[in-house]
Amino acid sequence: VALLTKLHAHKDVDRVKRTRKLRPGKGKLRNRRHVSRLGPLVVYAEDNGVTRAFRNLPGVELAHVSRLNLLRLAPGGHLGRFIIWTKSAFLKLDEIFGTYQKAAVQKVGYHLPRSVLSNADIQRIINSDDVQKALRPKAQPSALPYRHKKNPLRNLREMIRLNPYQKSITRRALLVQAERAAGKAEFVAKKRAAVPEAKR
Predict the structure, then answer these.
(1) Could you tell me which residue ranges the Large ribosomal subunit protein uL4 C-terminal domain spans (predicted)?
(2) pLDDT digits (tens, 9 = 90+) for 107-116
(3) 58 with 16: CB under 8 angstroms?
(4) What digits encode the pLDDT tens for the residues 119-163?
């Protein structure tokens, strides 16, 4: 407890105590009655009373450096768990996993994955003048913007856009209609003229 307080890690233990609650669901009946948040992980190489010292603290988990578990290091797939390394464990990492200059001793044939990029600041690389000069100008979108679909049978302009000859057909139909209307008006006028005034 004194060590955790010195490392400002006892706040995590208090947080774990506060978050302990009953599990919702049937897990309560299956020996998983309580759930709580995770506390710090202590990684050690030599057990000089480390396991006995930390065994009863809520949320504090222990892991041997040669048996590291990814589910403990990054629970839920989230990086950034608070891990306390002992000096012996940290010095033993090079022996287990090796370095870029020296191969691993314990893991036979294991090499540390090298970074594909020497500079990981992608935003700065893309926006640099050298890259921007080599790039082509931004292409315009090939797809036409969305047009509201109109009914060509009711909308003459839409019909002419689909069939340009429709303009001539419509004009001819209007001329024929006007001619018929004029002929009918003339015929009606003649008939009315033929009827005597008394019968009107």
Answers:
(1) 109-181
(2) 888 888 888 8
(3) yes
(4) 889 999 999 999 999 999 888 877 777 888 999 999 999 999 999
Query: What does pLDDT average to over the chain?
Result: 91
State how far the Cα of 43 lies from the Cα of 61, in Å rounded to an integer.
9
Regarding pTM above 0.85, the answer is no
- Distances from the Cα of 88 to the Cα of 34, 55, 82, 84, 188, angstroms: 34, 20, 18, 12, 118
For CA atoms 169, 171, 173, 176, give the dihedral sign. Answer: negative
Rounded to whole angstroms, the Cα distance separating 160 from 52 reads: 89
Residue-wise pLDDT for 33-83, tens only, equals: 999 999 999 999 998 889 999 888 898 999 999 999 999 999 999 988 999
Handedness of CA 50, 53, 55, 59 (dihedral sign): negative
Return the structure tokens found at 126: 């893309």
Q: Return the domain boundaries, the chain.
A: 2-86, 156-194
Distance CA 157, CA 160 (A): 5
Q: Which residues pair with 62 in a beta bridge?
A: 42
